Amino acid sequence: MSTAALAANPLARRSPEPAVAPVTAPVTAPRRRPRIEGATDSLPVRACSGEALGRHVTPIRRRPEVEPSALRLTRRGRVLLTAVSVLIFGAAIVVLGLRVTGVLEPGPRFTHTVPVQVAPGQTLWSIAQNTNPTEDPATIVEKIADLNKLSSPADITPGETLQIPIAG
User: Is residue 164 within 8 Å of 116, Cβ to Cβ?
Assistant: First the structure.
């Protein structure tokens, strides 16, 4: 390293530094309160406003008072209210879904029954279509089987008399 570089860089000097003794702060006595003639050791402390000291005091901005609501719910009350709301909403969805799928659809109202004798080649489907042309034949076949205690729609024989429900 050159001499000029050593002169420019103070950290690169190789001369040993002299040992420095630790510096101690001078010991000072604790501050004493000035003695006032006729005063006791403990002075009374009074609160002073800023105006008494000659300072300008800015008023504290207060929020407008909000009237408390009539209904205050605890955490348990909020959970209960949420659960009841979910149950009601869920029940409405289930009822609406069943209504859409047709499970809760009101079927035809049967006002009376008529006896019909089964002709050769007739089926419950054809009998249902002939007696109730405006209704769904599947519903009518099911009702005929229930009324006449048939285990299956194929259990009919020609000449047999069946009670057929008539929608009205």
Answer: yes
- pLDDT per residue over 97-147, tens digit each? 887 776 666 667 778 889 999 999 888 899 999 998 888 888 888 888 888
Q: Which of 73, 87, 162 is nearest to 125 (CA)?
A: 162
- Count other C-beta atoms under 10 Å from residue 147's C-beta: 14
Rounded to whole angstroms, the Cα distance separating 19 from 17 reads 6
- Amino acid at position 84, single letter: V
| Sheet strands (E) in the chain | 110-117, 161-167
Phi, psi dihedral angles at 167 (to 5 degrees): -80, 140
Model confidence, pTM: 0.39
Q: Residue 153: what are its φ and ψ, rounded to 5°?
A: -65, -15
C-alpha R_g of the chain: 52
**Geometric angle at alpha carbon 23, from 18 and 27, rounded to 5°:** 160
